[in-house]
Write a structure and sequence with these properties.
Layout lengths: L6 H6 L6 E7 L2 E6 H19 L6 E5 L4 H12 L3 E3 L8 E5 L3 H4 L17 E5 L17 E2 H4 L18 E4 L4 E3 L26 E5 L4 H13 L3 E5 L1 H6 L7 H9 L8
Parallel strand pairs: 1-11, 3-4, 3-5, 4-8, 5-6, 6-7, 10-11
Antiparallel strand pairs: 1-2, 8-9
Helix pairs in contact: 2-3
């Protein structure tokens, strides 16, 4: 049985130099190998554990349209045995969201731990979507963590202090709750890759995952695909619109073909 907290180890093992996540956004193409993706997740997990006292059961809210950095924070949360929370009405211990969205939430421009505007979070992490950013492009309230400025200072590997039980909650969204035992297993077979990821006869699946679908579905598709050795091509909604808005559009289809997509969208 593969659990979500197994994924960082799996991404580092076997053919770890092979691309496991490819991201398209306007003006951007980012390719992350299994090793690089696992390293990003380890850095985020180290930040959560060492600076924010995260542990088994810590609730980490992720807010925003699907992005590769949000997936990194999901992997980091599971590596610690925490709970990824995608229900916008649920309280959280840590909230990760685009820095520019804080202005919409904090009308007074200030923030303090426990603020109802950030769902009672004791810690807020401002995510920057630009690939090479080394600081937030917007001014952040005092106390808010600038992910772009601090994440690269953290360790490339980390050891969690404890391990979640099978029945601990891994993912909460508007429609469902999944435990550590069932998050990967409950994913539809249509989402999973077909190869074993170890260089066997069947090439691992490369699946297109549109960023226009809910983040919960993106995460479920990603974990099921990675657990079976596959990879994903994640596309930003703005990029999708620029390519004709549909994978059947000629420009869109050419990109997916060039990336070796071998499975339909999630």
């Amino acid at each position: 049985m593969t659990r979500p907290d197994d994924l960082v180890r799996l991404l580092r093992s076997g053919e770890s130099a092979r691309p496991r996540l490819i991201w398209y956004a306007p003006g951007e193409r980012i390719e992350l190998s299994g090793r690089v993706l696992a390293t990003w997740a380890a850095k985020a997990a180290d930040l959560l554990q060492e600076e924010l006292d995260a542990e088994v059961g810590t609730r980490v809210g992720l807010v925003g349209t699907p992005h590769w950095r949000l997936i990194v924070w999901a992997l980091a949360t599971w590596n610690l045995g925490g709970t990824v929370v995608l229900d916008d009405d649920a309280g959280v211990d840590v909230l990760v969201l685009d820095g520019h969205r804080l202005g919409d939430l904090l009308h007074g421009g200030t923030w303090s731990p426990g603020d109802p505007a950030t769902r009672g979070a004791e810690h807020v992490v401002a995510l920057t979507r630009a690939a090479l950013a080394r600081r937030s492009p917007v001014a952040l309230p005092d106390g808010v963590i600038d992910e772009a400025a601090i994440l690269l200072t953290h360790a490339d590997e980390m050891d969690p202090l404890d391990t979640a039980d099978d029945d601990d909650t891994a993912l909460v969204d508007d429609d469902a709750t999944s435990s550590y035992a069932d998050l990967v297993a409950a994913a539809s077979p249509a989402r999973a890759g077909t190869g074993d990821g170890t260089g066997g006869r069947d090439a691992p699946t490369r699946r297109h995952v549109p960023g226009s679908i809910p983040l919960a579905e993106v995460l479920r598709t990603a974990v099921a695909t990675w657990a079976t050795g596959g990879s994903i091509v994640l596309t930003d909604p703005e990029w999708e619109a620029d390519q004709g808005g549909d994978p059947s559009a000629p420009a869109f289809a050419r990109v997916l073909e060039s990336e070796g997509v071998s499975a339909p969208r999630a």
